[in-house]
# Entry
Amino acid sequence: MKRIYTVFMLAGSLCLTGCTMNKGKKEEALKTAFEEEIASLNTYDPEYVRTLLENNEIEAVVPGLSQKIADLPSLQEYLSVFFSQREFTYDITEIDIDQNTVSFTYNTEDLQSLFQDYYMLLLSHEAYDEENDVSLEECDEIMQEVIAKEYPASFSSGSAVMKFKEENGTYTAVQNTFIIDYGTAGMSSLFQEFSDQDTYDQYYARAALINSFRYETEEYDQGMILKVFNDNDQNLMIKTMISFYDDHHQRTGSGSVYCCVNADSYTYIPFECIGTDYKHHAYASYEITFDEPTVSMPVLDQECFELVYETDDNNNVSCTVTNTSTHTASNTMVYAFFRKDGETAGYSSSSIGSLKSKESAEVSLKAPYDDDFARIPYDTYELYVYSVSAGN
# Structure
C-alpha cells in the first residue's frame, strides 16, 4: 500500500510590515514566504526526521533508532550537510492572493535514499568507530559505493499547494498542507535486513574491498599510465576502463583491461588514446571507472623477477628477465616507462610466454616514437614486470 506522509513545516515565516498591500506586492510577499518555507524542507532537524521515522514504523523494527540519531552529535552534523544537498527542484505555477495559496510542481530525491545512507552510517559508527577508530566520514566513504549500487537514488515528481495565513501583513505557512509521497514503502524490510549484523558485515566487507585500492595517473601526449595500488590484505582482480575526450567532450579513444594486484602491492596499467583511424589523438579530459573488484589468486609481480638491462646505440632497452620465484610464470609482460624531465614520454612493452623457476629470457623494448616514426626523446626509464598467472 502506498504510504503518504505529511511534511511538518519547520519554524520559519516571513514578516512584512504594513496592513495593506497592492496586488503586485502581495504576490511578491507570498512568493518570498513560499521560498522561505521550501528552503526549510532542506534543513535537517532531529525532531523532523524522528517524526518521519516513527511514521514509517521503523521504530518497530529498530527500537530507539530515531533517538540514537538525535543523540549522536557527529551524525547530526553530517546529516545537516547531507540533507541540504538533497536534490529538490520546483516551479511555481500559480499565486492566488485571494486564497493565500501558492501552487507548484516539484521533483525531489526520495528520502528513502537518505534514510538508507545515514542508517548505514549509524551502524558503521556504532559497530566500527570505537573498535577500529573509523571516523564517520571514513565510514561514509567506504559505504557509499555499495549503497549506490544496491539502492540507487529514486525521485518523486508531483504538484502541490501551500496555503498561508496572513495577519497584520505577516505570512505564515499553514502546517499539514504540503503532502508528498516519499517513496518510503518497503523501508521496514530494508531496515530489518540491515539490522542483522551478519548482513551488515557482508556489505561492509564488500564496501571495504571497493575502497581498498587507489590510483595515480601519469598523463602524456599519446595516453596515460595508471598506477593502481591495492591497500587491502587480499589479492584483487580489478577491471579498469578509461575514456578520452576532446575539447567538445567527444570521445577520442577508450580502453579496458582486467588486472590482478597482490595485497599491499601495486601494478601499472598503460592506456593509449588511439582513435578508429588507429592513430594517436590528443585529449583534453578523461574518465576512469572501475568494476567492483573481486578476490583473486596471487600473481607474480615485480618482486619475483631479476632484471639486467642496458640501452643500445638507438636508445632501445635490452633486458634479461630471470624468474627468481619457485613458480612458473605465464603470460609475462615487461614494460619500459620512458620519462623526460620527470614527465612521461611514452612506453614500450614485450611479452614472454612461459618462464619456469630460475629461467631467463631476453627482451627488447623500443624507445618511444610518434605516429610519423620520429623518436621521442627521454632521459630516464623505469622497468616493470608482471605475470598474469603463476603455475606450480
About this structure: DSSP finds nine helices and 20 strands in the chain.
